[in-house]
Specification:
Elements: H1 2-13, E1 27-36, E2 39-44, E3 50-55, E4 58-59, H2 70-78, H3 82-104, E5 108-117, E6 125-132, H4 138-144, E7 149-150, H5 160-175, H6 191-213, H7 219-245, H8 251-265
Parallel strand pairs: 3-6
Antiparallel strand pairs: 1-2, 1-5, 2-3, 4-7, 5-6
Length: 267
């Protein structure tokens, strides 16, 4: 029975979405820069004003940010934190795939804007459904190829027919272990959980950096404190992953538990 269900999901998950009824009425934009797999900068064909588009309904693995994140990224590289390795590896692969899709569409896309965010001193950011000029829905492609996750906090805003096909595409990618689904879940966490962990780590490093500057701890103690946290992190994830593998908890419970335990580890 499980094999039959998997076959049904696989075939349905590979269905190509037809362009929506409103496709022809959407404004066309030229892509100027791909930032990561779910964000790019565009300019409308009838305007010179640049706008950042964040893809709605999905979330993709993070890419290295540098700047304010340079210390936390450097420390995690030094101690070979697998969560960072896998997150950034798939983030870069997703970014490359989006770049490829955009180039095949002549660097032009259509966007249905679903929301906007004004950012003082920066170009405005909008949220939207993104389509290639042949009508292909970019969010669906990325989920289907295992390069994006459905962003469950916001999927309720998605039209029902699109949501159903995104759910099927994600199930198909998971069953067939495409993209991020190849990774052990003890070594890869959802992007929204990863961002929460990274912010907590940044705060922890800031706090112990203050101790280092005040000479209350040595450089060796500074690094030892962070390394100890990473060892505890690995043990926590292994335990939670074992519960998932043994059917004790579900996938959503696994992700909630990861976020809760990792937030407790880096208070």
């Amino acid at each position: 029975m499980k094999e039959i269900i998997n076959n049904i999901l696989t075939h349905l998950g590979q269905v190509k979405l037809p362009p929506p009824s409103y496709f022809d009425s959407l404004k066309t934009y030229t892509v100027k820069k791909v930032s990561d797999a779910d964000t790019f900068d565009v300019v409308a064909n009838d305007s010179d004003a640049e706008m950042t588009v964040r893809f709605v309904y999905i979330d993709t693995p993070e890419t290295p940010k540098g700047w304010g994140d340079s210390q936390v990224e450097k420390m995690n590289r030094k101690y070979e934190n697998q969560l960072y390795r896998s997150q950034f590896e798939w983030g870069e692969k997703g970014k490359d795939r989006l770049q490829e899709l955009v180039e095949k569409s002549g660097d032009r896309v259509k966007v249905k804007v679903t929301g906007e965010e004004k950012r003082p001193g920066r170009s405005p950011r909008c949220f939207g459904e993104v389509y290639l000029l042949d009508g292909a829905f970019v969010q669906h492609i990325l989920v289907q190829e295992g390069l994006a996750r459905i962003y469950y906090d916001y999927i309720s805003e998605c039209p029902r027919e699109i949501a159903i096909l995104l759910f099927l595409a994600e199930a198909d990618a998971e069953i067939n272990q495409r993209g991020i689904w190849q990774e052990l879940q003890s070594e890869f966490i959802a992007p929204w959980v990863f961002r929460s962990l990274k912010n907590k780590q940044k705060k922890f490093l800031k706090d112990i950096s203050k101790e280092l500057k005040e000479d209350t701890i040595t450089e060796v103690e500074f690094e030892s404190k962070f390394e100890s946290k990473l060892q505890q992190q690995s043990e926590i994830l292994s335990t939670i992953f074992a519960d998932l593998k043994n059917g004790i908890i579900t996938q959503p419970e696994f992700e909630d538990k990861c976020k809760e335990e990792l937030n407790n580890l880096f208070p």
